[in-house]
Amino acid sequence: MKLGDLSCSFPFPHRQDEDWQFTDVSFLQNIDFHLAQLPAIAPLSDTSAKQQIQITNGGLCYFPNLSQGISCTISEVPFSPSNEHSWDYFAQLNCQYNPTTIHCRIPDRLQVLLPLEVNYQVTQERSLVLPRLVLQVGANSQVTLIERFQPSALLDSYLHNAVTQIHLAPSAKLIHIRIQTESPSAFHIATTLVTQAQNSVYQAYMLDLGAKLSRHNPHIYSQGEGTVSEIWGLTITSGDRLSDTHSSIHHSYPNTYSRQLHKAIIGDRSQVVFNGRIVVSKQAQNTDSAQLSRSLLLSSQAKINTKPQLEIMADNVKCKHGATVSQLDSEEIFYLQSRGIDHTSASQLLTMSFALEVIQNLTSDALRGELTQQIKNALPSFDTTGQR
Amino acid sequence: MIIPDSETILSVRELCAEIDGTPILKGVNLEVKAGEVHAIMGKNGSGKSTFAKVLAGHPDYTVTSGEVIYQGQNLLALAPEERARAGIFLAFQYPLEIAGVSNLDFLRMSYNSLRKSKGLPELDLLDFDDFLQEKLKLVEMDSAFLSRSVNEGFSGGEKKRNEILQMAVLEPTLAILDETDSGLDIDALKIVANGVNQLAKPTNSSIVITHYQRLLNYIIPDFIHIMEGGKIVLTGDKHLALELEEKGYDWLKEDYQGEP
Fold this sequence. Notes:
The complex is a heterodimer of chains A (388) and B (260).
Chain A: E1 34-35, E2 51-56, E3 59-62, E4 71-75, H1 89-97, E5 101-106, E6 116-121, E7 127-129, E8 132-137, E9 142-149, E10 159-168, E11 173-180, E12 187-196, E13 201-208, E14 213-222, E15 228-237, E16 242-251, E17 257-266, E18 271-280, E19 288-297, E20 303-312, E21 318-326, H2 330-337, H3 343-356, H4 365-378
Parallel strand pairs in A: 1-7, 2-6, 5-8, 6-9, 7-10, 8-10, 9-11, 10-12, 11-13, 12-14, 13-15, 14-16, 15-17, 16-18, 17-19, 18-20, 19-21
Antiparallel strand pairs in A: 2-3, 4-5
Chain B: E1 8-19, E2 22-33, E3 37-42, H1 48-56, E4 61-70, E5 73-74, H2 80-85, E6 88-91, E7 98-102, H3 103-117, H4 125-138, E8 149-150, H5 156-170, E9 174-178, H6 186-199, E10 205-210, E11 223-228, E12 231-236, H7 239-247, H8 250-255
Parallel strand pairs in B: 3-10, 3-11, 6-9, 9-10
Antiparallel strand pairs in B: 1-2, 1-4, 4-5, 7-8, 11-12
Helix pairs in contact in B: 5-6
């Protein structure tokens, strides 16, 4: 079965589409995939203290022990996205070919102390995997969601095509951690749709570290006054990887706040695309928004296409944006060398510190530790030959 | 201090170096023995900072001729980190800010890289902290500086004190201070000079590069060398600095230029 054989109500993206200008996915149409077999749901088997939800091959594979009040169910109601203009071919494909939605609800006024961990796994080669998660956080509740897209083995050429939809009720707070470390020959395409009611806080840490080709579209809709939205993104690529992030943050009400930092570390012949759209509608007076994209090129063949895209209709707003592209600073390396630190270690130290800025505001030491380890694993080893 | 028959630490002979094809050093000769403090003075552009960077192995400069022997080995064959491990320390004129790397981690990494090269076990965080507290006193630095990123947001004086702190930690055999006095008020200057003086031992030596005589009121040199046009044109004792201060660098033009 090829993607081209599946009927979809959205057209397959083409490089002539503005949103797919730098990312050619046409070859995906020629790969022979098979629809992943959904797993049988296992009974309660988790005795650990963790709240882990396992989504294997796109289906819920076991129910965890959840804190009181949190529910996790499978709904077979056809899924209808609330913001259709953020929808695309892949998100639609996900909904058309996987009838089940994994639906988690956090009731109102609940402080969930343990993070809700969602681990996505794939066990079948050349499979088309279509997980779909909905998380609703009740008013005045607080929770941390960790999504991990990790291979259980180094599987060949699967397409993980995920949709995550999050809704934050008034004054809810979500810390959303998303770690993508797919298999090196895998394809990862995902849409994350976040809607925020008034005074809710959404804080995301998104690491794109794996897959041969990855594309992530986080879309954040502020749907009330006083919302806070932060996205801290890091992409690390090497070899001939391509990683594309197309984000959007929509301000539609007065007095809202958003911050976005997207960093990329690009090695070898790899390529990164970042497109950051910020939309401030006419009613969204006093919006305070800032976006910064910073890229570090580690090789002369590495490539970055970075583009801020600001659409501001309101007249009384603070909106900043910036983009920098640089290489490791040879003066900084020399400074470290002059203190006895060798060239390789100096390069690693500077690259690591560049990356770690993305997670510095994360308050949980345990989570920061996990993310730091993932970043370390993803950084290329430095070859110093010829650099002296 | 001048010690009769002490070991030669550094021997520079007819050193020539260039940057991007432009010659800067044009035959520098210098002999530094254990225990000695040498000051190198000169106008902007005379080559004194270049000399410091070439000794530390800055990659932008190419040595075109001459030799530098440090404790019996060819210094120019060593990478910058190998020079540091062999006991050469350059206090930077403009210390760099390294965002995201804490001063403590940086100092420990640096110190342990030296220990490792000597075949000594690395110090863990606790032992290193004890060791560091002593060094902090020397430069009158608050330990709050340790948790901050290296030099990030430091004032000019704090950056220079941080350089001397690094020097105190690494205990170099040859310390090269490149315009350490620039941008310092008198209090900071005294702290820095005091730190340098306390680190001086009969077994190590230092080269103090400065534009002004002021620093030399606090770090008393055994020798003063005047650099001009990429070479040392005059050598004298500490009184030379006062003469220079009084008459200005132009005085050199009449008397000494063209007579190395």
